[in-house]
Design brief:
The protein is built from eleven helices and no strands. It is mainly alpha-helical.
Length: about 350
């Protein structure tokens, strides 16, 4: 019965995935902006005015960042295009003069075959234009819904939660209150911690790119910062874009140097920065993180992969808070089989 209930609940969540993901995604900006809104409320500001002030201020900051990044991106694309053309010529020279020894006719034939296959694939996209338009509509709708939900969480979340808890029995209300407090605190610490980790990663990689005179430093740094919100794989994958740009701009040697910088930053993050920011209480085993990302990605796509790790962290934190175990930990396998173990 439990398995059937979980299965049908899973099917329902997938049917309304846009709404579910938007509601969960709204918790991230709400957790980041909760502190400033609460501070304004405590100063006597009305909830509506405090929420609008923080929302508009955050939007202005995001617009300022975009105003700084977009011109830098456009300025860096022109020289990068010339470098890409040079790299393509070098590749053709290596294919003809290198160990493969291909003739220009063979290269042209392979290129034409690849172009024909690409055209065939693109031709099948005509029937998927409608589905692509629907996907774009769902993304836009989900983003707008997430912002609306975040707005009302900041404005009325504390009062709505208090009214819901008042309808429960005292014992249940205490558990819900404790679990909710720990869940919100865990999410808040998680988002702020990953933002700080992303800032450190982006700064370190930006310094390395500036020293090597790699173009597009600002856009690549922002990409690394955003990649930090997908633990274990995100920051490294985004760092590979910096490696690719360095390879096109400065050749193989520069690409290897940037790759070494990315690997060193990731090692520093895993061994020093994450334990220092989160402590032991907020750490998840890398296997748990990878499985959570895989399950979230398969079920709900890239947004599900992004949300899966904080959801897992919240579940673990709430379990530790409400567990009757004095240590607040899950029952271990050794405890479950201890009665039957020989010599116990």
């Amino acid at each position: 019965m439990v398995g059937a209930a979980v299965y049908f609940l899973w099917q329902i969540l997938q049917r309304v995935s846009v709404v579910v993901l938007a509601a969960v995604l709204a918790l991230f900006p709400a957790s980041l902006l909760w502190g400033p809104v609460r501070a304004l409320k405590r100063r006597g500001w009305r909830p509506l005015l405090a929420t609008w002030t923080v929302f508009l201020g955050s939007a202005l900051v995001a617009a300022a960042v975009g105003w700084l990044v977009v011109p830098a991106l456009l300025d860096g694309l022109e020289p990068l295009t010339d470098d890409l053309a040079t790299a393509y010529d070098d590749l053709l020279a290596w294919l003809t003069d290198g160990p493969l020894g291909l003739s220009p006719g063979q290269i042209d034939r392979y290129v034409n075959t690849a172009l024909e296959q690409l055209q065939d694939q693109l031709g099948g996209l005509g029937s998927g234009v409608l589905s692509g338009a629907v996907a774009v509509f769902e993304v836009v709708t989900g983003f707008i819904l997430a912002m609306i939900v975040a707005f009302f969480i900041l404005k009325d979340g504390d009062r709505v939660a208090a009214k819901l808890v008042d309808r429960l029995s005292p014992a249940t209300a205490d558990q819900v209150r404790r679990g909710g407090r720990v869940a919100w605190s865990t999410l808040n610490r998680y988002v702020k911690g990953l933002a700080l980790v992303g800032l450190v990663d982006a700064t370190a990689i930006a310094i390395g790119l500036l020293i090597l005179d790699v173009p597009l430093v600002a856009p690549l740094s922002i990409l690394v910062f955003l990649g930090a919100f997908l633990p274990v794989v995100g920051a490294f994958a985004s760092g590979l874009f910096a490696v690719a740009v360095a390879g096109v701009n400065g050749g193989l040697t520069q690409a290897l140097i940037v790759l070494a910088i990315v690997v060193a930053v990731q090692q520093l993050e895993g061994d020093v920065i994450l334990p220092l920011i989160f402590g032991r209480a907020m750490q998840l085993h890398p296997l748990v993180i990878l499985l959570a990302i895989a399950v979230g990605g398969v079920a709900f796509g890239i947004v599900g992969a992004f949300l899966s790790v904080p959801v897992a962290a919240v579940v673990v934190a709430v379990n530790q808070e409400l567990s009757p175990d004095p240590d607040g930990s899950l029952i271990s396998l050794a405890q479950m089989i201890g009665d039957d173990a020989p010599g116990d």
